[in-house]
Design a protein that fits this description.
four-stranded antiparallel beta sheet, single chain, Methylamine Dehydrogenase, Chain H, mainly beta
């Protein structure tokens, strides 16, 4: 079950894009695999909710979202999102899990999914280029998104950004929307910048 597993994407690039692993077994073991015909490669995002698990896939020409049953590990739904943009990366749940945000690096936007209906309810744009992996504040009021650099080290042309740093969003409309409230630059901001943020992790500090 997803409650006791982790997803392995790296091993998937040559055979199966998604593997479900029992990490409590000794040694750990793969208990289920999904081939490329079921789940597209190059995923970089996952969110586990109470009754669903979401995994994404993003290539230079596509963005897709997959919905799994956390009890049976079954693939319940494939949501094609290429019409919203390509190179989907990063997932974060807002509004207490009612909405899901996913960045489209190539098109510089964030698509918002209603998790009750698994449909697109909005697209956030105008905040910067090449959004990547995001993190949610403990309060749920802010989302932090890494923005890639102009000389990106990984991801190819679609992951090319402009201003390396972290975009800070104020979550609006109970999770359905967001607006950029701040930007945290990381290093050189010129076109020659070697800086290339890829991920944001939020950790509460006591």
């Amino acid at each position: 079950m997803f409650a006791r597993v982790e997803t392995l994407w790296e091993k998937a690039q040559t055979r199966s894009p998604l593997g479900i692993v029992d990490y409590r077994a000794t040694p750990m073991r793969v208990i289920k695999e999904y081939p490329r015909t079921a789940v597209a490669p190059a995923g970089c995002g996952g969110v586990a909710l109470a009754d669903k698990v979401y995994i994404n896939s993003g290539t230079a020409t596509s963005s897709d979202l997959y919905v799994f049953d956390p009890v049976t590990d079954a693939l319940m739904k494939h949501i094609p999102l290429s019409w919203t943009g390509s190179d989907g990366h990063g997932l974060v749940a807002t509004g207490g899990g009612r909405f899901l945000w996913m960045g489209n690096r190539a098109d510089h936007n964030i698509v918002v999914i209603n998790t009750n209906r698994d449909t697109v309810v909005g697209i956030i744009s105008g905040f910067g280029a090449a959004p990547d992996i995001m993190g949610l504040s403990p309060s749920g009021r802010r989302v932090f998104a890494a923005l890639r650099g102009p000389n990106n080290l990984t991801g190819g042309p679609t992951a090319k950004g402009e201003t390396p740093g972290v975009a800070v969003f104020e979550v609006t409309d109970e999770g359905r929307g967001g607006r950029r409230s701040a930007f945290i630059p990381i290093g050189d901001q010129t076109p020659a910048s070697p800086n290339d943020p890829h991920v944001v992790v939020v950790r509460p500090v006591r």
